[in-house]
Amino acid sequence: MNTEQLTVPSVEAIPILPRLNLLRKPCAVDILHLESIHPVLSGNKWYKLKYNLAAAQQQGFDSLLSCGGPHSNHLHALACAGQVLGFKTTAFVRGYEHLPLTPTLIDCQRMGMSLIFLDKQTYKLRYDPQWCRQQAEQYSSYWIAEGGDNELGHKGCEELAEYCQGYDEVWLSVGSGCTFLGLADGLKKIAESSSQANQKNQPIIRGFLAIKGGEALAVELLEKVGGDHRINTESHLGGFGKCPESLIYLIQEYDEQGLHLDPVYTAKMIMAFEQRWQAGLLDQSKRYLLIHTGGLQGRRGVSSLSANVP
Questions:
Q1: Residues sharing a CB contact under 8 Å with residue 101, sequence separation 6 or more, in sequence order
Q2: Sign of the C-alpha dihedral, residues 185, 37, 176, 77?
Q3: Mean pLDDT, to the nearest integer, of 132-139?
Q4: What's the CA gap between 226 and 233, in Å, rounded?
Q5: pTM exceeding the 0.90 threshold for the entire prediction
Q6: Is 36 within 8 Å of 10 (Cβ atoms)?
Q7: What is the pLDDT confidence band of residue 10, given thresholds at 50, 70 and 90?
Q8: What pairing do the DSSP bridges indicate for beta strands 28-33 and 10-13?
Q9: In this structure, what CATH number is given to the domain that contains residue 93?
Q10: Is 241 domain-assigned?
Q11: 260-to-69, 125, 309 alpha-carbon distances in Å
């Protein structure tokens, strides 16, 4: 793949807002900027897609097939990847054809993606492996699961573990759990290949579910990864995609400091971090890394944020 525009993610100290400035500060609070690795194909989406794209090429496919919602960061990134690599792209979209296209879907079409709209009941079939195989065969395409959540997606996210070394805790917003699982596996592999001292110094992941009613998913993810990692299920602010005024205000505050956040994932995790900081629940001796997973194009789905999309 032509990766000329892809860059290594940077790590910077989080801007400290005035309301936090007088509080006890941890040893370090840094941001891993996945949102800045590419103008379009950014965030954790690139890591989920990279090995899927390589597999599609190796298997001789010229078409990619996936699914997502009307504001899907995954579909947006997949359309870009298809345009860059010369793949045809097709997506099953949860929604109805007669409704106006979202800015995300307009971009996807502009980048060459064909859209097929499914009602909510039919869209649930995306979890049925047999249905997915049938669609892949019908469209002669390489199937990529919603959000890039498959084994190759996990493999790509393992690579994020190298940027987490030297920290005590890594904070991460969680949707499907693909990035959480991949990162946990990556940390485990580094520990297994390291000295005994370094094994003990691997960070703990603190995940924050962006969906409401995700307790069963949290239990499933934690059972898979083991260790001391944790997932919070109460910081979704009303559910997936919900964006109350308090969150909009926080995003606008960080905009003024030059840190642009998306309203679906990272901003909610940052808010949860702030709340614990203000409550004195953070350990002053620890080093924290907060992962910015991208998705800034999704700001266009919130009217008060759509005018300022980086």
A1: 70, 109
A2: negative
A3: 98
A4: 18
A5: yes
A6: yes
A7: very high
A8: antiparallel
A9: 3.40.50.1100
A10: yes
A11: 23, 35, 8
